[in-house]
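Fold it.
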Amino acid sequence: MFLELSDLLVNNIESKGYLSFDVEELLGIENPTARKLRLLLEKWRGIEKSDTLKRSCGFIAGRIPLSWEDKSVSGTLKVIERAAEELKKKGIIAGYQMSSEGKVSQTEIEFIFKEAKKESRSTGHEDLQITGVKYKGRKK
């Protein structure tokens, strides 16, 4: 049995692996910034497998995307904080802490989780066995 994969799928698997999300949980998050932040946190936790994640707010703003110009930084920080607060109320994160050692634009946020993601998450495909792969569109 062969499984034929498109270049797009092969590139995605090679660069990121497979991520799955609980659609009902995402739809239950009303704030669109909090929803995007939830996706980012899931991705980063999958990579770091830690009880906490610390990122600069400027980095997060660039990924969501939110404005990070000099005149909008304080407003953007409030948007990120409201998103983190919603995730906390929903029980997605245990807490968060914002800190700055200098300029407001250097503010960092640390997300605290109830438990580390040390175990791999079940995708329902654990028993799938691929015995061969035929690449479509590129030679390997």
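The first strand starts at residue 3 and ends at 5.
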